[in-house]
């Protein structure tokens, strides 16, 4: 069986403070908080989703903010850098914006593309690159207009403890195509127009330490439930050990750890974030799956209040 994922569905990371997380990704980066819910496996912790206007697969980064999270260390077995794409000509806007919010950045070149590299409040490594491909986001917020807004993921840079094994999974399991090699990196591309470029650090890296400022897992796209079930069989046939299919309310998921140490998930595109609230009010209310509704009062009591707000520099 030959299969090809369109690319990244979402990326999930650890941070400490929920309000600082909202201020950075919504207030500074201009993403939409499309879902405010909880970690279904640890309901005392928020699970916050940020993306384009609808939270389309390929645009969404999610977080488990928890003040008691230890500080992590980025390294092998992790997504090392999360890449965002913006429209052509928008990079200078983002340089100025980061400067206005006192976010340090540097400029790097990889595969003849110019990257603006920086970190969030917990040290998660991010970068912005201009590309023509990918639909414009229709979400504008604060000082970020649609013509400058982040479209979604450009892709990611994977840090592996066993790069050859990780690259084998990208090619033989996920169906990505090797397209280039330069310096320390090999580049792969998927079939989609967004979240479709994956760079792998060629050198094996020392294990990272999970915690605030690190990515927990990267998620790949499945078209629907039928395709998703087929993906689970496909992963098993390649000697990997996927979990049973798990209902995550907004998608179904399977998880497996590839031999380079990175936790992979495959998730369905549907049903999406409008399954339990209207599109025009996404992210405004704490949404719980029905099996947690009886505990709503206790859960809300334990979560710190958060709000999406226009930052002072944008007023």
Plain-language structure description:
One of its GO terms (molecular function) is dioxygenase activity. Keywords: Dioxygenase, Oxidoreductase. This is Ring-cleaving dioxygenase. With 315 residues, this protein is of the alpha+beta class. Helix content is 17%, strand content 34%. The protein has a single domain (8-314), classed as 2,3-Dihydroxybiphenyl 1,2-Dioxygenase, domain 1. The chain has helices spanning 18-28, 91-100, 163-173, 225-237, 296-302, and strands at 8-15, 32-39, 42-51, 60-65, 78-86, 105-110, 113-119, 125-130, 152-159, 177-182, 185-189, 197-201, 215-222, 246-247, 252-257, 263-268. The N and C termini lie far apart (54 Å). 45% of the residues are buried. The model has no long low-confidence stretch (mean pLDDT 97).
């Amino acid at each position: 069986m030959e299969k090809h994922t369109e690319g990244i569905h979402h990326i999930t990371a650890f941070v400490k403070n929920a309000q600082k997380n909202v201020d950075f990704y919504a207030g500074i980066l201009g993403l939409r908080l499309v879902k405010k819910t909880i970690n279904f496996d640890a309901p005392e912790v928020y699970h916050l989703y940020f993306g384009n206007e609808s939270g389309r697969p390929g645009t969404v980064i999610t977080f488990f903010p928890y003040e008691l999270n230890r500080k992590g260390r980025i390294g092998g077995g992790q997504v090392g850098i999360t890449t965002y794409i913006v429209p052509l000509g928008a990079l200078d806007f983002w340089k100025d914006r980061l400067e206005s919010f006192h976010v340090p950045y540097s400029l790097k070149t990889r595969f003849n593309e110019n990257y603006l590299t920086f970190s969030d409040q917990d040290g998660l490594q991010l970068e912005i690159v201009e590309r023509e491909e990918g639909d414009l986001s229709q979400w504008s917020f604060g000082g970020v207009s649609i013509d400058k807004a982040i479209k979604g993921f450009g892709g990611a840079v994977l840090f592996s403890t066993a790069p050859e094994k990780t690259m084998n999974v990208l090619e033989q399991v996920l169906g990505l195509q090797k397209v280039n090699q330069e310096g320390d990196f090999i580049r792969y591309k998927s079939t989609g127009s967004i979240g479709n470029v994956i760079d792998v650090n060629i050198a094996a890296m020392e294990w990272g330490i999970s915690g605030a400022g690190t990515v927990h897992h990267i998620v790949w796209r499945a078209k629907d439930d039928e395709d998703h079930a087929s993906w689970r069989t496909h992963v098993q046939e390649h000697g990997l050990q996927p979990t049973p299919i798990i209902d995550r309310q907004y998608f179904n998921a399977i998880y497996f750890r590839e031999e380079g140490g990175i936790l992979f998930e495959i998730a369905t595109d549907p049903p999406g974030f409008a399954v339990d609230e209207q599109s025009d009010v996404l992210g405004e209310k704490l949404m719980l799956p029905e099996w947690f509704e009886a505990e709503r009062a206790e859960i809300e009591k334990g979560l710190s209040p958060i709000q999406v707000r226009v930052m002072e520099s944008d007023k």
